[in-house]
Design a protein that fits this description.
It contains two helices and no strands. By secondary structure, the protein is mainly alpha-helical. Helix 1 packs antiparallel against helix 2. It is rod-shaped, with a radius of gyration of 19 Å.
């Protein structure tokens, strides 16, 4: 694989990561909407199932945030490597 091929592959990967980021951002927006409804519905409920639902929502939101950070780091690293290649 030539340097040009590597740079092209890194460019394609960056575009694919952008698509993934857009998808995950959409998931995050939907999750925010749903979590607001669920948390409002579960307000004052102390049943075990309600606590599990609250934890699951919190965990899902955290995973979306972590995924977006991972995508950003991958793009930053890929772009830095592409610049090193010239």
């Amino acid at each position: 694989m030539s340097i040009s091929d590597v740079k092209a592959a890194l460019g394609e990967a960056d575009q694919l990561l952008d698509q993934g980021k857009t998808t995950i951002e959409g998931v995050g927006a939907a999750l925010d909407e749903v979590s607001g409804l669920v948390l409002a519905t579960l307000h004052d409920t102390r049943r075990a199932e309600a606590e599990q639902a609250r934890k699951a929502i919190t965990d899902a939101i955290r995973e979306v945030e972590l995924t977006l950070r991972t995508i950003a780091a991958a793009q930053d690293n890929g772009n830095a490597y592409r610049q090193v290649l010239g």
